[in-house]
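TL;DR need C-alpha cells for one chain.
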Amino acid sequence: RLVTNVRDPTAGQVGCPYAQRCWMALELKGMPYEREEIDLRNKPEWFLRISPLGRVPALVTTDGRVVVESTVINEFLEDTTAADGGRTLLPADPWARAQQRVLVHRVDSRFVPAGFKYLCYGGDAEERAWQTELAFWDRALVECGGPFFGGAEMGLADVALAPFAERLEAALSV
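>> reply
TL;DR here they are.
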C-alpha cells in the first residue's frame, strides 16, 4: 500500500513529487499496489505512527512493515523485485548501477535545490546555477546513450528526476 497525499488542484493540493517517484517505480515494475491518499493538512493518527515525521510517501508492505523516504522505498522495491526476477530499474552491471545512484543523489542534492532557488528567488547567480545544472543533465543524457538516463529504458535516475523536471518546467517555462 502506497500512502500519499490527496491530489485536488481545486483545493490547492497537488501530488507530492516524492510520492510520484514511488508511484512511477511501482507502475514501471508492474507491481500490484493499493494507493491510499491522506490530507496532509489533517494527518490521521495512524499515519503519524507509521511516518513519525508526517511525510509522504510511506510504503506499507503486506506484512505491515513500513518503509519511508522515496529513494529508500524505490531501492527497497528494486531489491524485492530483483530477487523475484521482476523488472528492474537499475542495470545489472555494478558500475552502471553506481552511476544511476549518483544521478539519483544529484537530483536531490543539486537539481531540486538549484531549480527551486531560481524559481523562488530569481537573480543572476540563481539563474547561472540553474543553467549549469540543466547543462549537466543534458550532457549526462547524451553520455548515458538516451533516450533515458538508464539507456533504452527508464531507470531509477529517470524516476527520481521526472516529477521535479515536470514541475520546474511548468513553473519556469523551461
